[in-house]
């Protein structure tokens, strides 16, 4: 991350995060933001879900987001907020395990909610907000 553009916040007075995420990010006023649409774990070559496994779907959804961010002048390293939609909260741990392999340090602020269903019968959908590298 470029110095001064985005700063992760871990508040010592708040409860510690229960998964790989930061409490918040401060974004410099000069920064340009990229808002991604939700991404499923769909293989871009075949157009179908990579598998029934929520971990594999999470990994693929994040790879798809990485590709979108790169084409937008950003990257996963510049993500400041993520929203995860899970069809079943029983998949929370498996989703976190895959997510934590991508965001290993200063993970973005994050929300995870349960939803009734997702397109293509996906188990997870992820959207992100990132800062452009050259803001």
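^ Assign residues to that structure.
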């Amino acid at each position: 991350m470029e110095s001064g553009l985005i700063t992760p916040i871990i508040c010592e007075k708040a409860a510690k995060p229960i998964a790989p995420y930061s409490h918040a990010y401060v974004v410099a006023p000069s920064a340009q933001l990229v808002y991604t649409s939700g991404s499923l774990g769909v293989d871009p070559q075949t157009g179908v879900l990579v598998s029934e496994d929520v971990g594999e779907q999470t990994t693929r959804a994040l790879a798809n987001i990485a590709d979108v961010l790169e084409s937008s002048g950003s990257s996963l390293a510049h993500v400041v907020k993520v929203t995860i939609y899970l069809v079943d909260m029983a998949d929370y741990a498996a989703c976190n395990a895959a997510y934590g392999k991508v965001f290993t340090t200063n993970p973005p602020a994050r929300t995870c909610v349960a939803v009734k269903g997702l397109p293509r019968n996906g188990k997870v959908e992820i959207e992100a907000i990132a800062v452009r590298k050259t803001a």
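The chain has a mean pLDDT of 88.
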